[in-house]
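Most newcomers find our protein records easier to grasp once they have seen one. Nothing more is needed to start thinking about how sequence determines fold. Here is such a record, shown just as it appears in the course material:
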Amino acid sequence: MSARLVILASGQGSLAQSIIDAQRRGDLDAKIVAVISDRPEVNVLKRAEYAGIPTYVQPMLKDRADWNRKIFSLVDSLHPDLVISAGFMRILSPDFVTYFKYINCHPALLPLFPGAHAVRDALEAGVKVTGATVHWVDAGVDTGEIIRQVEVKVLPDDDESSLHERIKIVERSLIVATIQELLPTLERRNV
């Protein structure tokens, strides 16, 4: 029985696309059962639909507790063995992150530069090397146990955009390799 993956994403979907492509090639013994976004107009939903993957939108609500319940219920209804943040720009409740096996790909070498502006923060700090980290998501912001990391050199002429693009390239292979590594260790949920 293949592992069931749910991808959470808020943007263009290049990271999600790398997972979709790996599944299509047969590189992952897994099935992407859904892509969920908090934003209805994002490209990641189009990518998933094109690949024949069901999509769902759970927009942020004024009542954050209500949103937390709805996103938890939606993901739980899909019976995932692994939930993957592929550029999902929302912090999920402690209940969510302790219930689901949930990983995130972050554009820095954690524990350095957590949060939403990691690439900018790395440039402002003047580091010569940054990178990408896949980690388990816990109740903190980018504080979960590190699974894998890959370094990316900061070039003298890098700006935030150029550095982030090079990190994204590394993230695409890193997330797939990490999922491949985790799949045999996952406890399958009965559906």
About this structure: The CA atoms of residues 19 and 50 lie 14 Å apart. The chain has a mean pLDDT of 96. The two ends are 11 Å apart (CA to CA). The first strand starts at residue 3 and ends at 8.
